[in-house]
């Protein structure tokens, strides 16, 4: 069995209406599958003006805006129209990418028909409540996630560290890796543009600390801004460059009034911005991989990151960057100060990071998931079944 025999029903809570690393990875996956001769059908919420065109055939799932975060939508489940489409498509494997109502209904639909199921894990949903004063809910959400993922034949994580966390949390007995790739043409040190930096008012000798990502509190914006303010108090010369947009942008701009806020960027513009930084600061603990970290590494940037899933699999502490205890403001500032004041240390770490980033190619990582699909289908054919219910 190879990719040409696959008929994949892919369910996503956000396939293309808001751009993020997870749905861009899913679109790249679908593009790869189609090039290999597989049949793919995507089921996800849609909007009139999505962030980018969908790759492949996209069927619209009914949804509602999330209260307080209207840019995101909650898919409500499988409508009669989607059920008819699924029956006509006749998938031989189901891939769910979000533990939302649509994902739950998709799992139930597949299990009722004896179809194998794979879930991809893209973020640490259980950590989100802590950023909104609801940390007491984390054990409940973790239990709900366990119930969801234990209904699947297998789950895949984007990094070794995230896979180990999922095993420790007893999410599933079959945990594989579907990592992320890098576009080496876009993210490359040759994209650095000193003239463009000067146009932003940044002197050549001023170290630039970069942030790349959606501007939401769960990305650690408070830790980032507190660490930068401590650098300022110490008199460390630097400039902050922020690439991205989101609902917390005004809050972030008020905290960092001297920073350059460039908004959302993509393609060559994003590559130029990242390569024109001198280091990446990623204090988030919610990532399961950290696409922006890999992109920065490909541009020969050292990364200062929280010691958390995702970053631990990419950043080698003291070699390609620094891993700091989450929330340790003073230690984050110490690491940033070192890279701001010691150009040799910064360049050594950046060069080491570039060597590691060269290992990641999209076709290789997507083929690994194809291999997982084929393995799970064969296991089902031999009579192996997913667990019927979560184990405490």
Automatic annotation (TrEMBL):
This protein's UniProt keywords: Transferase
Single GO term (MF): glycosyltransferase activity
Protein name as it appears in the record: Glycosyltransferase family 1 protein
CDD domains in UniProt: GT4-like
InterPro entries in the record: Glyco_trans_4-like_N, Glycosyltransferase_grp1
The keyword Phosphoprotein is assigned to this record: no
PANTHER family with a match to the protein in the record: SULFOQUINOVOSYL TRANSFERASE SQD2
Record-annotated Glycosyltransferase subfamily 4-like N-terminal domain positions: 20-184
SUPFAM superfamilies to which the protein is assigned, alphabetical: UDP-Glycosyltransferase/glycogen phosphorylase
């Amino acid at each position: 069995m190879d990719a040409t025999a696959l008929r994949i029903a892919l369910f996503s809570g956000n396939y293309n209406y808001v751009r993020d690393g997870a749905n861009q990875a899913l679109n790249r996956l679908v593009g790869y599958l189609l090039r290999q001769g597989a049949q793919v059908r995507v089921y996800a919420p849609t909007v009139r003006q999505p962030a980018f065109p969908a790759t492949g055939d996209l069927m619209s799932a009914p949804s509602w805006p999330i209260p307080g975060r209207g840019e995101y939508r909650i898919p409500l489940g499988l409508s009669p129209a989607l059920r008819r489409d699924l029956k006509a498509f006749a998938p031989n494997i189901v891939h769910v990418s979000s533990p939302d109502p649509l994902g739950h209904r998709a799992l139930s639909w597949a299990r009722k028909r004896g179809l194998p199921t794979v879930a991809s894990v893209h973020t640490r949903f259980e950590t989100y409540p802590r950023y909104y004063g609801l940390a007491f809910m984390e054990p409940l959400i973790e239990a709900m996630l366990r119930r969801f993922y234990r209904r699947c034949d297998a789950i895949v994580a984007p990094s070794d560290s995230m896979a180990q966390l999922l095993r420790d949390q007893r999410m599933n007995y079959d945990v594989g890796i579907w990592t992320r790739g890098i576009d080496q043409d876009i993210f490359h040190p040759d994209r650095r543009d000193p003239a463009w930096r000067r146009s932003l008012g940044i002197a050549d000798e001023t170290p630039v600390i970069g942030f790349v990502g959606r501007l939401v509190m769960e990305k650690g914006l408070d830790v980032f801004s507190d660490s930068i303010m401590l650098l300022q108090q110490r008199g460390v010369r630097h400039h902050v460059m922020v690439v991205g947009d989101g609902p917390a942008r005004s809050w972030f701009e008020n905290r960092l009034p001297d920073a350059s806020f460039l908004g959302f960027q993509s393609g060559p513009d994003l590559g130029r911005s990242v390569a024109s930084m001198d280091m990446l600061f990623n204090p988030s603990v919610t990532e399961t991989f950290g696409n922006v970290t890999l992109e920065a590494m490909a541009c020969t940037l050292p990364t200062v990151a929280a010691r958390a899933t995702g970053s631990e699999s990419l950043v080698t502490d003291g070699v390609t960057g620094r891993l700091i205890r989450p929330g340790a403001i003073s230690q984050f500032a110490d690491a940033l100060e070192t890279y701001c004041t010691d150009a040799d240390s910064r360049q050594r770490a950046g060069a080491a990071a570039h060597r590691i980033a060269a290992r990641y190619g999209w076709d290789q990582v997507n083929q690994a998931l194809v291999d997982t699909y084929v393995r799970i289908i064969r296991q089902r054919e031999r009579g192996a079944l997913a667990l019927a219910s979560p184990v405490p």
